């Protein structure tokens, strides 16, 4: 009897809400439209291209370690970094950088190789200048030079330690130093994704919009209890021989069903219509979506407890949805440093983004466990607050 009544109420509410154009607008049309607009506005930020840059290098002649540094720079075009190496004398390098003829200037001091062969670390004497117009390419090249020299310094220190501890002849030590000086550090560019941090910018936008507008979707459904009370519908339902909790339970079931449907549709539409959007296996995504929808629905019962009218409930819904959406990264990612930011991040919108990042990076349900536990705890706390919070109106 109770199960049949619950199914009847659920089926009736589902039909009613599917006919409601305003709910469909907030559940599907607006979040997809915003995701599309934001993806166009921020297009290209994910695919950073390095501009060509000229590097003026002053290196002592006949210095093999210094030549190895120059050779590393000359090999960068093979790694898709457009670098042109310009040979110059040390006095010319600052002027070339200031005049804009070179984006980066590198000065290797006299005796660079000799000091390194002797076990010294001459890296601190290397001068690297980056011009104001060098951009990201200039910074990358400067970091490569510093890293290369630092690695050579480390090798020189290791050579000195070997000379002290090992019984090497002077000839063997010189041969080892010469071989070390002639070696050129190898560089290779690789693309990688870190599990949990794998959402592209566009994927993050789609995820954020789906999470924020999820609150409006479930809110429209649960908060109809207030309208039904004003119109007397709730009173007539309560007059039937049914448990008192049945009507709110039916609203919660409908909210979860339609919330899962709308969120999944947004994620699927984003994957199909927008470039670079990928959320991983749906066997992993679907449990996450269900947990997020249940957590968002639990917040609605707090609003039901404190709002006296549908207008007050709608205002509270908007404030909560936008606040949690912004905190969860619906429009842009917020810094997560400090305990305040960490607390703010504990909400269904942020959890959806973190979980989708895990699934997009190839993670499974086991990797998703911390996020799911966070959502379960959020739901439990919200329902407990809704239970103990003093009501400002007649009980539903």
Automatic annotation (TrEMBL):
Name of the protein in question: ABC transporter permease
Pfam families hit by this protein: ABC2_membrane_3 (PF12698)
Domain ABC-2 type transporter transmembrane: 21-386
Membrane-crossing residue ranges in chain numbering: 24-45, 205-226, 246-270, 282-303, 315-334, 371-389
Origin species: Ornithinimicrobium pratense
UniProt KW Transferase keyword: no
Lineage top rank: taxon: Bacteria
Recorded GO MF terms: ABC-type transporter activity
Primary localisation category: membrane
Intracellular or extracellular location(s): Cell membrane
């Amino acid at each position: 009897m109770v199960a049949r009544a619950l199914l009847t109420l659920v089926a009736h509410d589902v039909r009613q809400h599917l006919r409601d154009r305003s709910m469909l607008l907030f559940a599907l049309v607006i979040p997809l439209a915003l995701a599309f607009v934001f993806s166009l506005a921020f297009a290209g930020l994910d695919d950073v291209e390095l501009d060509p840059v000229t590097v003026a290098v002053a290196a002592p002649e006949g210095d093999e370690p210094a030549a190895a540094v120059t050779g590393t720079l000359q090999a960068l075009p093979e790694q898709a970094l457009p670098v042109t190496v310009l040979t110059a004398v040390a006095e010319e390098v600052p002027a070339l950088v200031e005049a804009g003829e070179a984006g980066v200037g590198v000065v290797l001091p006299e005796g660079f190789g000799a000091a390194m062969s002797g076990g010294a670390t001459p890296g601190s004497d290397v001068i690297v200048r980056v011009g104001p117009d060098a951009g990201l390419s200039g910074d990358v090249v400067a970091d490569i030079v510093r890293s290369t020299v630092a690695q050579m310094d480390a090798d020189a220190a290791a050579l000195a330690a070997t000379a002290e501890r090992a019984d090497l002849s002077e000839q063997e030590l010189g041969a080892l130093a010469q071989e070390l000086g002639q070696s050129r550090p190898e560089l290779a560019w690789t693309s990688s994704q870190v599990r949990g941090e794998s959402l592209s910018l566009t994927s993050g936008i789609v995820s954020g919009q789906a999470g924020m507008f999820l609150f409006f979707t479930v809110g429209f459904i649960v908060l109809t209890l207030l309208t039904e009370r004003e119109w007397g519908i709730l009173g007539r339902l309560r007059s039937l021989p049914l448990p008192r909790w049945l009507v709110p339970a039916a609203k919660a079931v409908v909210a979860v069903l339609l919330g899962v449907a709308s969120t999944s549709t947004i994620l699927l539409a984003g994957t199909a219509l927008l470039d670079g959007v990928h959320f991983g296996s749906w066997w992993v995504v679907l449990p996450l979506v269900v947990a997020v929808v249940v957590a968002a629905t639990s917040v609605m019962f707090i609003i039901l407890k404190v709002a006296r009218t549908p207008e007050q409930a709608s205002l509270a819904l908007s404030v909560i949805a936008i606040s949690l959406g912004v905190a969860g990264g619906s429009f842009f990612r917020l810094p997560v440093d400090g305990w305040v930011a960490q607390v703010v991040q504990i909400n269904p919108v942020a959890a959806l983004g973190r979980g989708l990042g895990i699934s997009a990076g190839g993670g499974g349900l086991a990797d998703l466990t911390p996020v799911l536990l966070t959502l379960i705890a959020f739901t439990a706390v919200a329902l407990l607050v809704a239970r103990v919070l003093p009501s400002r109106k007649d009980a539903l």
